[in-house]
Amino acid sequence: MIDWSRVNSLRMEIGDDSFDEVVEIFLEEVESVVSRLRSDPNPAKFEEDLHFLKGSAWNLGFLDFGALCQEGERLAAHGNAAKVNMGAVIDCYAESRVAFVAGLRKRDGRITAA
């Protein structure tokens, strides 16, 4: 679900303080898009939204979430936005977020994002 080697590489590349900031920004921005997709889905924007989520997900090691976003983006790009299983995308994000935050806390106890 989470590519911890990617997470560790990113942390080493940018340092602990910057990593904490990146995580905070990532969670805020992704949560904003996911919240909108949950409450007011607009199939005309699925390709754009899923592209953004995919890039964000893979940058921070959210493998399964990124893969679902990629599949949904592909469907939307080919005129099949109605076939995107947005419920699965949203659920996967929620599960990935829980695993990610728990994993960070377990690893170093420094991240307090909830």
From TrEMBL:
Q: Does the keyword Transmembrane apply?
A: no
Q: Where is the HPt domain?
A: 21-79
List keywords of the entry alphabetically. Two-component regulatory system
| Keyword Glycosyltransferase belongs to the record | no
Full protein name: Hpt domain-containing protein
